[in-house]
Specification:
Layout lengths: L1 H18 L3 H24 L10 H16 L1 E4 L5 E4 L4 H23 L5 H20 L1 H4 L5 E2 L5 E4 L3 E4 L3 H24 L1 H11 L1 H6 L4 H27 L1 E2 L6 H14 L6 H16 L5 H18 L4 H13 L6 H4 L1
Antiparallel strand pairs: 1-2, 3-6, 4-5
Length: about 350
């Protein structure tokens, strides 16, 4: 039954561009899908290891900037007499470079910050995001600073000069985001279902007990940080090559808050939670534009979030799953129980 439901749901998602003629709505789905990927990456840390990272947008921005710079090419004046010239590369190589660089910084920050816990870990992640934002803002020779990197090429597959497929229109970009989202889901699901994934969950539930039975705490947490950062970098790369412009505002704290909201309201520690939360809070702001003033949009947005957290503290997906099990998966009553 679950496989049939999953197949129908995936089939429905692939069919959307066939009947949705309004390109603006397709744009909303593309942007929501990108942030769903970012929320899924954050859920791997927050939901499965219990580590709250409030600087997760840094990996999103690092992936975006790296992908943009590698695809555009850049010059770095290292000394008065030597300038390093990096030629422009195919976009798919730049996209992979963004994933690798973001994953590297995830490893680096994981090795440093997982030596502390609680509020100290949160402070380290926030500080890292702010440092990266300041670098992007002030290293004008490389990032163009507040003037932004523009004319970024759209996503392209193929070999230059032989065969290329360029994603100019919204429909190819929608499918690109959808496929990336599915691949990210599969990677996270396989990791969570593995022995290492069970070790991460054990650390979330009781770290001292998990360590006492042989779980390598640092190794498990750093692995989660690397995978999480790499997936966030992929989301940043998709965003950059779809919007085709990137500036230091991509590191703003509000984007991390948006990811946290998607994870918590959808259900942290569940595979479907970030998807459900991402669809609701990715589409809701656009839907409210037609029925409410800008001030009321934020009021409705905040009230809905508070109601979900208050009445469904574990999130939407766990609440729906519990209701479904009680309603449909309950064992049949025996004759004595009916009496």
């Amino acid at each position: 039954m679950n496989r049939w439901a999953t197949g129908l749901w995936v089939g429905f998602l692939f069919s959307i561009p066939l009947w949705m003629t309004d390109q603006y709505y397709l744009h909303i789905l593309i942007v929501a899908g990108i942030f769903i990927i970012a929320a899924m990456s954050l859920n791997l840390l927050l939901g499965y290891t219990g580590q709250l990272s409030l600087g997760h947008v840094a990996f999103f921005g690092i992936g975006g900037y790296t992908s943009a710079l590698v695809s555009l090419g850049f010059d770095l004046e290292l000394t008065d007499s030597y300038t390093f010239v990096f030629p422009a590369q195919p976009v798919w190589i730049a996209f992979l470079a963004g994933i690798v660089v973001a994953g590297f910084f995830g490893w680096l920050i994981g090795k440093i910050s997982f030596k502390v816990r609680g509020a100290y870990f949160v402070i380290v992640t926030i500080s890292f995001a702010e440092v990266v934002r300041l670098v992007a803002l002030n290293w004008i020779d490389l990032t163009e600073g507040p003037m932004a990197l523009n004319n970024i090429p759209p996503f392209t597959l193929g070999v230059p000069g032989l065969w290329e497929l360029t994603f100019w229109r919204k429909i190819p970009n929608y499918y690109l985001v959808l496929v990336t989202c599915i691949l990210s889901y599969v990677v996270i699901a396989r990791l969570v279902g593995s022995r290492l994934g069970r070790a991460m969950i054990a650390l979330r539930e009781n770290e001292p007990l998990a360590a006492s039975v042989g779980v390598d705490v640092t190794r498990s947490l750093v692995l989660a940080a690397v995978v999480s950062a790499a997936i966030a970098g992929a989301a940043g790369g998709l965003y950059t090559h779809y919007i085709r412009i990137i500036d230091p505002d991509v590191f703003l704290f509000i984007y991390t808050v948006t990811m946290v909201i998607m994870v918590v309201t959808g259900g942290k520690g569940t595979l479907a939670g970030p998807i459900v939360g991402g669809l609701i809070f990715g589409i809701l702001p656009e839907a409210l534009r037609e029925v409410a003033s800008p001030e009321m949009q934020w009021v409705i947005y905040g009230v809905l979030m508070i109601l979900i957290v208050y009445f469904l503290p574990d999130g939407i997906v766990p609440a729906v799953s519990s209701w479904w099990k009680e309603r449909f998966d309950a064992p049949p009553k025996t004759g004595e129980e009916r009496a």
